[in-house]
Amino acid sequence: xxxxxxxxxxxxxxxxxxxxxxxxxxxxxxxxxxxxxxxxxxxxxxxxxxxxxxxxxxxxxxxxxxxxxxxxxxxxxxxxxxxxxxxxxxxxxxxxxxxxxxxxxxxxxxxxxxxxxxxxxxxxxxxxxxxxxxxxxxxxxxxxxxxxxxxxxxxxxxxxxxxxx
Length: 165
Description:
three-stranded antiparallel β-sheet; five-stranded parallel β-sheet; alpha/beta; 8 strands; globular; single chain
């Protein structure tokens, strides 16, 4: 595993700026496990938003569930009523669009939101589905043989790991 030469903390500050612009008076943050959940939790605190950010898992709605099974990344926890809510989904890396498709299906299992948008730390291109983020702190290109993941230290500092897929 190699550390990618991207400054995750600088990108987080850019994400914070972008999310601040996307926020409405009743916007609810929901992070995709695990990197997106870390981002949502930190944004919730840094933006001084009331309550807790939600966490959502893509496990139950993935189109590759038979191969992957349940991940140990965490379960969906939405501490608010989804019906009519303005939801901002957060993720660390947007790639094929398959995770966000699964997450939206999971979200609708909990109700019918009024609005769903997405912000990501990194958009790495390579989409297989017609999905795009409303805000991306960075856009990069990686080979199909590489994967990019957000890491978080014990002190909460973000970094990136890149590895062969």
